[in-house]
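Students often ask why we bother encoding 3D structure as a string. The short answer is that it lets us treat folding as translation between two languages. Here is a chain of 335 residues written in the first language.
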Amino acid sequence: MALIDSSYTHRDGETRGIGYRRWVIAQATLTACLKVKGMRWVMWTCWIYALLQGVFLFGFGQLMVENSAVSDFITEDLDLFESFAPMFRAWAADNPRIAIGMTYNMFFYLFTGAIVSSLTLSLVALGMAIPRLITSDLSSRAITIYSSKAVSRFDYCIGKFAGVLLLLTLTWLGPILATWMMGNLMAPEVSFFWHTAPALLHSVAFVGSGMVILGLMALGISAMTASPRTATAIWVGLLLMGVVLSGIGMGSKNYWLQYLSFWFDLELLQRSIFDIGGDFDELGDQYPGFTEMGLIKTIKTRLALTAENVSAAIAALSVLSAGALVTLYKKVKPE
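And here it is in the second language, the structure alphabet:
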């Protein structure tokens, strides 16, 4: 009797590396997150919000075109910006870097991080997704199966982290990029692309940094417990605690309390990247009194009433990220 079965044939298929295994974990993570009840509604809300922002930017661009149908509709039919539009057109012709570039920078400062923005919706999406990241694997002991498939702890975490980044791309980065592209494709002049390029770069830098920080935090919290409800409660509690501490710090002028809010720390990081305060200073020097009007005055007031040490905010975010990495190291391991 032959020692080797003669029916054996050597597999000649394509050999997949560890990168492919990481990608499979990332895809599985994203798929599991999208299956959460209500997740697709959150995602589509982000894209609808991006569409509305694109329409807003289209209207802003049309104000630059004298006697255009859209401009006439806004200024005459809606009775908005009737006295402001001619002044703004002249201003844009004289100094487009400020009139267009700085205006877009302020718009995307709000689009990427305001209370009502894709950031808020992304935080909601992460809260819904956290039980499907590592928590479910801890409760089902799926990590043991991953380990038996020659996937190391590092590769497992990389795959999960990539899955979170994919989710945040769908809810945060993607809509922001789409908004910028829509605003420029529908702009009256091609020059909008380079005048608004700094706003795009600032948005990508801030959103990219935020995605990394939030992704690590979400994974860290998800690895803390095998209970989905507990993991979600920790995330919600961290959000609410940050909002409360930030408000107390601003109201009592004990600004150090604000650094205990990761949401506020992200806001300070955003201010530094967009340099919104520098824009207002330059705008006030060239056009005195303009920064004391409407939305600009509201933003300036908030800047004046809150802490402003960006280094402290970055340090606080670094501590949170390091804590998340330590949690992953201790909790995600073969059993």
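Translate back mentally: The chain has a mean pLDDT of 81. Keep this in mind for the problem set.
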